[in-house]
Amino acid sequence: MNDDDKKTVLLYGDSFYWGIYATTGKRHQRQDRVDVVCQQELGDDFEVINEGLRGRTMFGENGAFPERDGLTQFGPIFASQLPIDIVVIMLGTNDINTATNHDVKEIAASLDSYKEKMKYWCEFMKFDVPKVVVLAPPHINESELVVFRDLFGGADQYIDPLAAELETKAVSLGWSFLDLRPVVSSSGMDGLHLDPQQSVILGQKIAETIKTL
Asked: Tell me: the pLDDT tens digits for 160-205?
């Protein structure tokens, strides 16, 4: 297949996409990263681009870590990768940390701004607007929080309401929705992140969803 005929997938998210070892802070080996797994599952007809940043929020600054405003960063990143066929957004966990504490309705409502940014850049650069998949993040295992206890203690209570709001908003925008709560879970090493095996499952599930679009 000619490279110009490939479908481009942009994974836009946080440390779940970046692929962090909970015990060391380093990255998963390449074969265990979400984008690499997704690429392998989809094959040569697709190009998968990973734009995962640790600590990235859906909107606004992360109260614990600077330069993580996902909404502000999205436009230039999106435009730099055009043309894009599918965007897979996985954000929201960092919005509900104790230093940021964004309301779940506001987190979901910010997807309207993502849609506006995609429309603007696609019209400006004369490309079709991509399909979008919104992912609801997995639960936080608060009993296993150690390093992030102060930052994410009490945050799991917002995961279910966040998932509901994200689904409602995604449907209203004509986008697809994938609930990761029954799909992946914390590794047990820090109560928050995924181990390599769970990261592989995440990549496989995203690819499976993309194949249905």
From this structure: 999 999 999 999 999 999 999 999 998 777 899 999 999 999 999 9
CA–CA–CA angle 54, 58, 62 (5° rounding): 55
> In the structure encoding, which two tokens stand for residue 89, read together?
């957004």
In the predicted model, what is the mean pLDDT of the chain? 96
pTM equals 0.97
- Each residue's pLDDT tens digit, 16-60: 999 998 878 899 999 999 999 999 999 999 999 999 999 999 999
d(CA 150, CA 35): 30
| Contact indicator for 11, 206 with CB cutoff of 8 Å | yes
Q: Residue type for 140, please?
A: I
Two tokens at 209? Answer: 């969803």
Structure tokens at 171: 């449907």
Say if residues 181 and 139 touch (Cβ distance below 8 Å).
yes
What is the three-class DSSP state of 189? coil
Which residue in this structure is represented by tokens 């946080």?
14
Count of domains in the chain?
A: 1
- Identity (one letter) of the amino acid at 37? V
Identify the DSSP state of 20. B
| Chain mean position to CA 155 | 18
Q: Residue 12's CB: how many other CB atoms inside 10 A?
A: 25
Q: What's the CATH code of the domain at 56?
A: 3.40.50.1110
